Amino acid sequence: MSAGAAKPPAAAAPPPRAAYRHFLAIPTRWMDNDSYGHVNNVTYYSYFDTAVNEHLIRAGGLDIRDDPVVGLVVETQCRFHKSLTFPETVDAGLRVARLGTSSVTYEIGLFRQGDDEPAATGRFVHVWVDRATQRPAEVPTRIRAALAPLLIAAAT
């Protein structure tokens, strides 16, 4: 960086464990590790997907095979903070940042059990669509009811 050049803004600290509303324990598997000896980056996205869909199925009654309205992933993001490895159990924290008419923005934190600082944080956006037409549809009432308790206050 040259003299007088602006410094990039410091990254905000990731949300701690207490900032998440729902948790799912996910054991790492031997196959999750890559040749560097830690969980491969693509596997973090699998953990995000598992945390979101487990909640939608269990708490929202989502029938992934037959419901006429389903959520399609349109955006994902992951920030890595610490490595995870096998054998560990990951606590996937879930919260909802936005619950719109036809879309939901989830935020997920992946924590080692007993750790308050996340190993990774991410976001996952669903757009709910009519299965037959693939056109946007309202978030189903029972799904909305399952997600409402996970909704966090918007940042000011």
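the 2nd protein, sequnce then structure:
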Amino acid sequence: MTAEQFRALHHGGTPLVLPNAWDPVSARIVAEAGFPAVATSSGAVARVIGYDDGQLTPAAEMFTAVARIVRAVDVPVTADMEAGYGLPPKEFVDRLLETGAVGCNLEDSVNRQLVDPAQQADYLAEVRAAAGADLVINARIDTFVRPSAGDAVADAVGRGRAYRRAGADCVYPIMAPVEVLPELVSGVGGPVNAHAAPKGPTVAELVAAGATRISFGTSLHQHLMDNLRALLPELT
């Protein structure tokens, strides 16, 4: 599947559900379950290869991890690449395309601080110019997880519009409450990615609120790690 075909999944009648994977094994399980694509989780990938979340993984190691996941499955892969690891847009795009990924998730906070929306829009525009149609860009909006100067919903709508104008295919107001999703969807005027988790909100709830694309971030990996912690005492 090409980037164009993956992009079309954001505009179909069926919501695009993307359980996030962190290694070839989890990616294969997602693909075998019938999902049309695999999304990576940067936080989960980082922890699996020995780092923590927050752009602490060396870029080369993240690209290598993404390439391994791409090679493991026959469905398209979109890669969570945090804030781009400080790479110039052209270099970032070239290295990501070398992995075989057809999409990326880019967030608008660095060191737990929101980036100026105009600055982030300029960055996304440069990524789009370098990638052409070869990458589906999901622009993450962090106003609900980082300190925001004003109203988080209004800020998210403003950022979402700016990022769409810059060339983002979809915007991702991560951790936005379900009750504000309809306002975000209406305000942004394009595909909106919402965050689901094993303990909720559910895919059905998010779809009913207007989400077009649904992903799980680190929640699936964390759920499995919690189950492992609970199991281990029973093995002694």
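The mean pLDDT is 96. The radius of gyration is 17 Å.
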